[in-house]
Structures are given as C-alpha cells and as structure tokens.
Write a structure and sequence with these properties.
175 residues, alpha/beta, Rossmann fold, 4-stranded parallel beta sheet, 9 helices, 8% strand, globular
Length: 175
C-alpha cells in the first residue's frame, strides 16, 4: 500500500484545481503553515523537501491567492510544547503570527488539524504573551479550495471557526 498525504494528492491535481475556480480572491495574501508532521521524520516520510516544502504553497498559489514569504515559516506552531507548558507554546505562536502579519498575510493556511486548533483557538492567549492582539483568519487548505470553487462559507463550516472570518468574507464578496 502506498499511503500519501492529502497535500501530496491535491498537488497532483493542480491543473484540475485551476480549471474549477469560479470565485477569485484577487490580491489575497496568505501565510502557509505546512506543519511539523507533514514531512517529518524525513527519512520515513517523503512527501516534499523537508527543508523547503513547496507543495502546499503551490496548491495555494494555484487558487490565485498570493503566498507570502515570512521569516518564521518553518517554525512549529507550538502545539507539542503546549501539551506540557502553555506559555512557551503561546510565545512560539505569537512569534509565528507576528512574522506572518509583518509579511502582509491576511489569512493563515494550514493542512494539519492540530495546527488549525492551535492557530484558531489560541490567538487571544498568544496576543497576551506577545503583547499584541491577533485576529488572523485560519483556513484549512481544503476550505480555501471550497471557497474558490464557489461553495457557501456557511455550508463548509466557516461560521464555527473561533477566529471570526466576517471581515475577510465581506472583503472578498461573500455574504
């Protein structure tokens, strides 16, 4: 059995992704967070370049949005640390979010459920540790795909995100 990560599978269908876009998000700048477990341990998981993973970014770029480069792109989201010590995990998250914001990102794109929970659930705590306020919408790559394929944000569950997407959705013409 040849098991593949879903990002690897989606990457094989980039042309199909481009062909099925019905809603453009012109000018949207996003920060991609690949996540630690996407390609580690690299001696076992051969999905992408472990030091410079590109497949998630290429999928995101295929939707017409602009992936930004940011200094902390390869930094862990802090979930693993948060299981034992919350403050260092929130500092890691604050550093990551600050770096993405400084690069101009309006949205964070993730492919990992643990990373999604860390980013979506803990922005307030990270802001307290980092001395700022964060309100960066978090989307799974599959949610981004659903949006550009014309799906209704409520139908794909965006109303259940803790970090509100209202301003983002209004800016890009969603109800």
């Amino acid at each position: 059995i040849n098991v593949k990560h879903f990002v690897e599978v989606l990457h094989n269908y980039i042309d199909n992704i481009k062909e099925n876009i019905t809603k453009e998000l012109d000018g949207l700048k996003v920060a991609c967070h690949t996540g630690c477990h996407y390609n580690r341990p690299s001696e076992k998981v051969q999905t992408d370049d472990p030091m410079n993973p590109v497949k998630l970014r290429e999928i995101v770029a295929a939707t017409g949005v602009i992936p930004v480069d940011y200094e902390e792109e390869m930094l862990c989201c802090g979930t693993g640390t948060g299981n034992t010590e919350e403050e260092p995990a929130m500092q890691i998250l604050a550093n990551k979010l600050t770096s993405a914001m400084n690069a101009g990102a309006e949205v964070m794109i993730v492919n990992c459920p643990a990373c999604f929970q860390q980013f979506d659930n803990n922005q307030k705590k990270a802001g307290e540790v980092g001395g700022t306020t964060f309100n960066i919408p978090i989307l799974y790559v599959t949610e981004l795909l659903a949006l550009v394929f014309g799906e209704d944000p409520d139908d794909i569950g965006l109303k259940f995100h803790r970090t509100r997407l209202t301003k983002f959705l209004e800016k890009y013409g969603f109800k």
